[in-house]
Amino acid sequence: MSLTVVVPCFNERANVAPMVAALGAALAGVEWEVVFVDDDSPDGTAAAARELARADHRVRCIRRVGRRGLSSAVIEGALSSSADYVAVLDGDLQHDETRLPLMLAAVSGGADIAVGSRHVMGGDSSGLSSPMRVRLSETGIRIAQLVTGTKMTDPMSGFFLLRRALFEKLAARLTGQGFKILLDLILASPTRLKVAEIPYKFRPRMAGESKLDALVLAQFAGMLIDKALGGAIPLRFITFALVGAFGVFINLLVEQLTRHAFRLDFGEAQTIGTVVAMVANFQLNNQLTYRAQRLKGARAWRGLVLFLVVCSLGAAANIGIARALHMENGSDLLSGAAGAAIGVVWNYAVSATLVWRVR
């Protein structure tokens, strides 16, 4: 086997058969396989892939239960390969699989990684479906170029190819978080990678739904912070703490608004502000911090109630520890900071265990 094509997917049933047919036409003369890594799609994506696999040995499927995320899906798919080369492309048919032979030739010829680019001569990004997606993509590219110092025109690309041995070497350094695995690979390498950019035309989506939104960009920013800290602090804890800091702002804002608008006393206004902040924190954590275990429907309502209970206990621990330390050292700042830190750690640990636990 020369090439494994890893296709992370969620709700892409309609694209499975066309993807296999397109790869067969594009990779004529190449020994290849495709691995669909499906995050337990409710539309039956895994079943569609396995039906094809019964008649075509080049098709494989990994169905993941209880975990989600494009980057981690790519890692699992690539590590399941025994081929010399690994390519990654999305399951939505927007990447141009006909460019794979050129990418394979570039890496065989000496490049460390070949990247499909929409922004070099001959490339085209007109397949982005809305001005918002265009702005998000352009913003991500500028941030990535600034932080990494790379001259790549499309560091946010999800379409690339490299030697499996190189992927294996970098795998332990990857965060596995978010949707931008290419940038994770580049930042994980201890030496600068030689990149070959191959132009391609980004196609309009034919089926399924786009996964690109503002929260994806926020996850991308979190990955950069994680890399800057050398992985010393878990990325999820960083995100949880940042959401908590935003909650403090919401708390203060609501408190001031309710005091002036409704003439409430401080205790009443503080209580309302605290509840609103906790609800806002739950929503942000559900959409961002625990995106891969996102709660929906009735589970979201149960999760909200449990989160409120957890945070209430965390607030009690915060106040109790701060008061005890204040009695010992008399320092408002140090006592308050220690209590807040204990509260954040409590909320994070218990929320991960009870509210967003992996089933």
Topology record:
Blueprint: E1 3-9, H1 13-26, E2 32-38, H2 45-53, E3 59-63, H3 70-79, E4 85-88, H4 100-108, E5 113-117, H5 131-148, E6 160-163, H6 164-171, H7 181-188, E7 195-199, H8 214-228, H9 235-262, H10 266-289, H11 297-329, H12 332-355
Parallel strand pairs: 1-2, 1-4, 2-3, 5-7
Antiparallel strand pairs: 4-6, 5-6
Helix pairs in contact: 1-2, 9-10, 10-11, 11-12
Please summarize what this structure is.
The chain has 359 residues and is α/β, with parallel strands linked by helices. The protein has two domains: 3-211, Spore Coat Polysaccharide Biosynthesis Protein SpsA, Chain A, CATH 3.90.550.10; 235-355. Helix content is 56%, strand content 10%.
Description:
With 359 residues, this protein is of the alpha/beta class. 56% of the residues lie in helices and 10% in strands. A seven-stranded mixed sheet has the order 3-2-1-4-6-5-7, sandwiched between helices. Helix 1 runs parallel beside helix 2 (45-53), helix 9 (235-262) runs antiparallel to helix 10 and helix 10 (266-289) crosses helix 11. The longest helix is centred in the C-terminal third of the chain and has 33 residues, at 297-329. The two termini are 35 Å apart. The mean pLDDT is 82.
